[in-house]
């Protein structure tokens, strides 16, 4: 029986070959095991290739560098997170008032960062990476909600302002050096939302 091939979709990259998809999955699984066992700080693409039983060139061609591989490790969780705030149940998803959705989004984003803190700490070292990809989706989502609560405000700036404190380095500092609990961090984020979205007299 001949293998069925998917037709390309306009605006999307061509479908992967089966062997390329298998190699990608092997690399992701190997890297996930290594991060779980030893952390992400010393993750080496050469060692990942050996663990996955693929050529080093395959890893570099597929992911480019260590940051590219770390981003791929986070990709599946990011997809689930985006599905939750775009189409999941309220208050994170549609159906709740915009202000409640903003608070729920920032709380969920903080939880997401804490779940993969070591990876986010490494990724945030590159500012260009920090403000690309998922950040853009998060920013558009927040700006859209802010426009409902604060018509006429500079929602592009305000979305950046609300996202600024939700980063791995600051949250790690708040918890480790200042002794803040996760609940206190989230309460601070909620207070910030209330201040930013307070109606003007």
Automatic annotation (TrEMBL):
Protein name in UniProt: TetR family transcriptional regulator
Say which domain of life the source belongs to. Bacteria
Q: Keywords in UniProt for this one?
A: DNA-binding
Is the keyword Transferase in the record? no
Has UniProt tagged this entry with the keyword S-adenosyl-L-methionine? no
Per UniProt, residues of the HTH tetR-type domain are 21-81
One of the entry's Gene Ontology molecular-function terms is: transcription cis-regulatory region binding
Region Disordered: what ranges? 1-20
Question: What InterPro entries does the record tag this protein with?
Answer: Homeodomain-like_sf (IPR009057), HTH-type_TetR-like_transc_reg (IPR050109), HTH_TetR (IPR001647)
Which species is the source of this protein? Answer: [Actinomadura] parvosata subsp. kistnae
Which residues mediate DNA binding here?
44-63
